[in-house]
Amino acid sequence: MVLSFKSWFANEGGKHFVLILWLGANAWLFLRTFLTYSTGQQYYYLYKMLGLGLCISRASASVLNLNCSLVLLPMCRSLLTCLRGTHTLSSRGTRRLLDKSKTFHVACGIAICIFSVVHVSAHLVNVVNFSAFYSEDLPALNLARYLGEDPRMIILTTVPGITGVLLVVILFLMFTASSYCIRLSNYEIFWYTHNLFIVFYIILMVHMVGGALKYQTNVDTHPPGCLRPNQSSPELQGEELEPGNEERRCKEEARFNPHYPQTWMWVSGPLCLYCAERFYRYIRSSDPVTIVTVIRHPSEVIEVRMLKRDFKAHPGQYIVLNCPGVSSFENHPFTLTTCPTEEKETFGVHMRVVGDWTERFTELLLPKTGVELEILPMVQQRRYPKLYVDGPFGSSSQEVFNYEVSLCVAGGIGVTPFACVLHALLDGWKQFRLRRLYFVWVCRELQSFYWFSELLCALHHKLWQENRPDYLNLKLFVSQTEDLQSMSEEKYRPLSSRLSIGRPRWKLLFDEISNANRQKHVGVFCCGPKGISRTLHKLCNSGRYTGVTFEFNKESFS
Amino acid sequence: MGKIEWAMWANEQALAAGLILLTGGIVGVGGMFRGWEFAAYSIAAGVFVCLLEYPRGKKNKGTSVERTGQYCFTVCVKAFGPLTRNYYVRAFIHAAIAVPAGFMLATVLGCVCLGIASLIYLGAAISGEKWEPILPRTETRKAVGESIKQPPQNPPPRPPAEMRRKRAEDLEGAAYDNPIKVSANDE
Description:
The structure holds two protein chains of two kinds. Chain A contains 18 helices and 14 strands.
């Protein structure tokens, strides 16, 4: 596929611009610190003792400072949700950058790991040099207590050494638990080790206490390299002192001061922001919700409708559920399928029962099928478990309304963000910028379509009544071709006539959309398996569709 | 909630520790620092640990994700039978390998990391986990013939072959009444 520059730039340009900015900032910081330590007058003696190890370790330390402060910012989810909603970020391109916040967090994390390796190696070399080049002339500069002290003793008896070892151990634990495989199978290990970050940051802020590296304070009165009073210059041995030589005599001994710890200046702002955000989320979610109804749908899906005081959400946002009756510390994200409106205050989620948390949660909510229900003389109210809701948090699907033409592709249960969009359109479609919506839903079984069949038909009828038949273009696909089925109910006629057997052919779909919507920006939203989103991403970047730009937005949780 | 599989985390840690040992060993030998024999040992130890830990084990439930190209390593590791299957043995091996690396500055980090991995393996062994190789399943492909095992029981509503064959000679006789009424307005 030919990559057209315009399409690629519309889709990938923003991300790559931020990446280049970030790399540039890191490179500039590294080089600036490196040059300060290798050419700075106040580090002359230290550089002579330690060599390149000094410059590399300090330069990597400054890069680490930057990345440790940046890594926390993308994780302030409530703040990002706020930014997405308000008009602070009025440009759609800037809002699309917020979709990539987790990727930026991962990039900063990887940078921290790489530069930690560099920093530790350089400091190990420094410790060896401190021991081997113990200076009798400048005793204040030494970290070792005597010439040839065992470097391992130096590490274990100084504050930077011990804190450094602890930091490396914590970073090792956090890094090894963050691989994709572990997040997929044992999310708890990832979550609990990642919460060690607070210990990491506290130790990081005291890492520099003790002042192992010192700089010279009196460079003007003792220019580095000057001759001591009882020393003579090697070149002028035996010659008369020239008048210019007087400046090369030291007026006083070199004095050294340790560095003031600087990390707290970089790190404390984002750390306070993140802690405030966690505290705010904890307060916000401490109010339990009232479960109003629980409905069992085919294909192992249940719908839970809830009520909460002062809960406002927009279509496309997701919430995080915590049920202490199932597990006290586990939090699971679910996209909202109905948002609270002025008329109806309940909101709901659809969840697929796969995995131990959802199975146990369903058991608590619904009686097991086949259990006989006793007919009691008194109506016994069903006792639902206590449920806490954190959120709502923003996601890329909120942008569906901000394009003139949108294509929403859903795979299986991935239809949930778009279901909320359709609900919002059912309440009123005129106030949005959206003029045409292509809705493609691919499921394995026909039964899955019954989750939202009423909603789809209702919206279809409403739009036809209001004389906008071209607003909603539905295409349903059943990907399992073994048992041929069809939706036989009459009321679901609009769906069964738009149902195809087999996988969708994306190129044809894109051709159809580009022919009908020339000179437009089409927003492509995908919530489904990786295979589909990769294909769609490639198609959006290819330049086959002249005049039409497809902008790709992907929603995912893992 | 749910059983945590510690062995997977220990595996990641041990692989990372092996790489750290290898790097530290290379630095130690390259700079010919004091105690470079320990560095040479830790190069060999790092390679051994990486080879042992590269193939991922099978998960108890759910799909297991393989590392790229791990099949040949899986076969080698499987050949050692209970030595590699049992996590107590692995914990002990890692602890034993880690100790000599602690004597040299360049490799001391690798020693600490491998020690932590060994502790987690011990925890995994105590909870009863075992290493199972991920082997490709021999998929029984459904033979094409099976899908047409059940021919349709009822023929479509048309007369049997004898009547159809007479169509060329007898045009009038070929017309027939469709047994099922076809009307324009379906229910």
